[in-house]
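Please check this one:

***
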Amino acid sequence: MKIDLTDTTASKINKALVQGRRAVGTPAVGMVLTLVIVTDEENAYDALRAAGDASREHPSRTLVVIKRVSRSPRDRTGSRLDAEVRVGADAGTGETVILRLYGEVLNHAQSVVLPLLLPDAPVVAWWPVNAPTDPAKDPLGSLAQRRVTDTYAAEQPIQELTARAEAYTPGDTDLSWTRITPWRSMLAAALDQVACKVTAVEVEGEEFNPSCELLGMWLADRLDVPVKRSLSSGPGLTAVRMETDGGPIVLDRADGSLATLSMRGQPDRAVALKRRETAELIAEELRRLDPDDTYASALKYGVDKLGEGVEEKTAPNAKDSSGNADGAEAGPAPAKKAAPAKKAAAK
């Protein structure tokens, strides 16, 4: 069920939500959190679709805040709030309210959102694009216990990591970090299988992919070893090579789907490392609402402490610190090194 409201107020939107629930026969509120999506008109559809898919795991009230730019000075002096209320089958397992703000009300979005938050339920704010430098000090971000950004969508993603580190507040997180969860799990499991000391690491991935840097910073922070970043044509993160006193350990994913784990003395193993959709990333973030101390420690390690990136062609055995941005696409992977060199580095 959809209810369109033009030039409305938060009070009327709340009444429309109650009316919609009664009309579809679900008067009870069975949602566990409020997800506030702050985006523009161009990215609203994709963000709303991802949130709808994630709501199957986390039933929530989704508030989509779209700030519309008025064309004329006269329009900018006024204020208007339009809303589209969706309940029932049109909103998945929760409720959706799309808020379009015009004029002066753009600067007071928090006053519109606050009355629509679910009572006694956590709030998560998500900026698919154009996230503020300090999400915790943003008027909408200050309403949330968890603030999700995506540095991959920034114009200068690597420099954005430095700004995020300087402004970090417990509760901040990033989808570029979420994308490397399977890589972190696989690498940790590989090191658990052998008793060895890691001496150096190389992380290989496409350029301008902040997940690569985040994975590198995590490895450098946890292992206290030099980490180098090498470049490939992707897609996303393509390989992690760890030199140890017990032989090399290599996790290589050239096609963005299936990876190969190589360790000395053991047969190569194929492992699933499929690049995940945004809906899966958001669903993972909504599973935990407490501060992510591991992310904070890796972020504050600093991009500038990583080894300089080297093109794969010129430095086949570079050691690097990057991660995989599963949401970023790129061209086909470049030709790999000769088989003997790869075997020598395999983990």
Remarks:
- Confidence is low (pLDDT under 50) at residues 309-347.
